[in-house]
Amino acid sequence: MFPRKQWFSTLLFSLPLILPLLGVVWVARLDLSPQQQAAPTVAPTVAPTVAPTVAPTEPVPDPTATPEPSPRRSLSLLTPTDPPYIPILMYHYVREVEESVDPLGFRLSVRPERFVEQLAWLRDQGYETLLMRELAACLRGELRCPARSVALTFDDGYSDQFQAALPALQQYGFRATFYIVTGHVGREGYMDWEQLEQLRDRGMEVAAHTVSHADLASLPLEQALVEINGSRAALESRLGVDVVSFSYPAGSYSPELARTLWEAGFTSAVTTAQHDDLSHLYELPRRRVLGGETIAGYPWYFRPLPREGR
Ligand SMILES: [Zn+2]
Fold first, then answer.
1. From ligand 1's centre to the CA of 119, what distance in Å?
2. CA distance 227 to 219
């Protein structure tokens, strides 16, 4: 009897030692899971608020009833009382251009050395760059955002984005989202498919900006759908990526288009509107970084705009 009791007592008193050890082994196994290693920042595709199973006491759903829109994501984010402000910056060209020769081009261009200065400022201020698909997940509460987050976006797919912006981004370990007009890929002045592959391979997000840079709000919906789905299909088939982020050409959008993008499975869409309301994932505002902007003016893009006059 005594040896058996002694064995039992030993086991009982060892439990506080053994259980934490088992816990360490389990946590270590989690750390080594291939999904975590492969994609540490990818957001889950299912919103955490969606109940995974139907309670057994609930009635069985009527299979003939009209299905509700996909519960994966809601069209309008349920805005928290204090939504985080994450600046979304909009760039077009990173190049030298004379204001007197091309005033509009100058306005859309940031000089390469100025762009490098801006990235250095971001690093010094402790900013981390989010891809747009990550920002959308942050706003939905599916991904924890770093305290100082910014999303850098480039529109239209100009070749200087590959030649000047990409090396600078890589120099600082930053990432950005590039909205591509697929009908312009390979044209003079635009990136080609090999360059887009390199963007993809360097951790950038390649996103859709229609086939022909059409003014979507002025088109019949069927034609707008051809522009939206055509650009996504081309990027997905040529690059083998999931395209979930969209930019409206010239910021031209409507509530109908926003709903269409949601139904098509996009997770966000950006406009050219300048405000700080991030509560509508398919009408996200952006700050246009002006040509000629000095580094002294750069911090302005990171301060929320005054509430009045919206
Ligand atoms: Zn554009």
1. 23
2. 10
